Amino acid sequence: MKTRLLMYICIFLMASYLSASDDYQPAKENVAARKWFQNARFGLFVHWGVYSVLGDGEWVMQNRPISKSAYQKVAAFFNPLEFDAAEWVAMVKAAGMKYITITSKHHDGFCMFDSKLTDWDIIDRTPYKKDVLKQLAEECHKQGIKLFFYYSQLDWFNNDYFPRGRTGQYTGRPDEGNWNNYIDYMNGQLSELLTNYGDIGGIWFDGWWDKPAANWRLDGTYELIHKLQPAALIGSNHHRVPKPGEDFQMFEKDLPGHNTAGHSAQSEIGSLSLETCETMNNSWGFNINDMRFKSSSDLIKYLVKAAGYNANFLLNVGPMPNGKIQPEFVDTLKVIGKWLENNGDSIYGTRGGPLSPKEWGVTTQKDKIVYVHVTNRVSDLIFLPGLQKNIASVELFNTNEKINYSADKYGLVVELPDKYHNIVDLIIEIRYN
């Protein structure tokens, strides 16, 4: 076992900090980062770990289930010699994405980075023996892409994650452990991630939901993160209203305010920046049998809808164990990137529009421009209540083509051109004086 020096440093630092409180005020660097985050609108989610060797998703240890002793053997087969950080980041840029959020540690406890607090990591347990997060961080900094780290608070491997929660009951761990030691371990690893990889966009937490009644000592963890990197944004996939110290709110496989996936029943929309995450097939981690690929058209429409809901879209890939991203995913991202080259001004830097989402689509807005995104043409006329005053022009986006419209005291009626029936998103640009 490696030295626990960093853990003790972390404990010392935390003991010297004031507790975070309900009136948490973000630093000026954090406020600027929040604005950048809202403007970015599109990012890549990456679920990658030793579980990819088994080709059955990131929950394979839990779902089969596989004991801790047996699961450790999987790491010996993880050797991603075809991983190319520059290729990944170039793909992200071509797709029009502005940031990457990658799993540093998932629920199986395996660390995709060089942790001094455990040997259950990519350096010590795999033949690859290289830190993929270090490579990716260096390339992101070089190419101007922000890097966020997903970190699982839930851990099926660590013996100190005890008492166990809703999951991880059958991994063969002893029925004892020290919960405070586990939180110290977690905070020690977060200190590593926030000191060894340069400027980080933020931490994307997951797994709190496994033990919602536990004392997670979140105040101390959040204060530690903000002390180490004030601009780093904190979000947690806990499906609740954001807690003090958090900087953005995410929704899993759903648009804000919806609960089609069954995760967000208790999640109200708070006042923070929003993000929705979704998969390109039906799996987060690499699943060799999952061929339920979403079309590029559907994903573009989801991106547009997310912007209309004032949310970012974090679109997931599950790389293969060799380090390559599935060609189906790469091809789809190229299509989305081409669409954003032509239409990105109606997405990037916008906020949710003045109208709530409708059956026909959504609106986004930027300065004195409202973009009307018609993603579902149910009629040749659309009514836009309250948007009739001080109009300078109504045109088809990215062209000089005028759009017929009429206005009265109730709103604006826009006539959709006949020749545009089969496009992914018909965008009408309304400029105001």
The value of Rg in angstroms is: 23 Å
Q: Within the CATH hierarchy, at the fold level, what is the topology of the largest domain? A: TIM Barrel
Using the 3D structure, state the CATH architecture of the largest domain. Answer: Alpha-Beta Barrel
User: What is the strand content?
Assistant: 15-25%
CATH superfamily of the largest domain: Glycosidases
Briefly, what CATH class of the largest domain?
Alpha Beta
Can you count the helices? Answer: 11
**Overall spatial form:** elongated
Describe the structure.
- The protein has 433 residues and is an alpha/beta fold.
- It folds into two domains: 5-350, Alpha-Beta Barrel (TIM Barrel); 353-432, Golgi alpha-mannosidase II (Immunoglobulin-like, Sandwich).
- The protein has eleven helices and 16 strands.
- It has helices at residues 5-16, 28-40, 60-63, 68-71, 85-94, 122-125, 132-143, 179-195, 218-228, 296-308, 327-343, and strands spanning 42-46, 99-105, 146-152, 202-206, 233-236, 248-252, 273-279, 311-317, 351-352, 361-366, 369-374, 381-385, 391-396, 405-408, 411-415, 426-432.
- The strands form three sheets. It has an eight-stranded parallel β-sheet. It has a five-stranded antiparallel β-sheet with strand order 9-10-11-16-13. A three-stranded antiparallel β-sheet has the order 12-15-14, with no helix packed on it.
- A hairpin with a 2-residue loop joins strand 10 and strand 11 (369-374).
- The radius of gyration is 23 Å and the shape is elongated.
- Mean pLDDT is 94; it is low at 1-21.
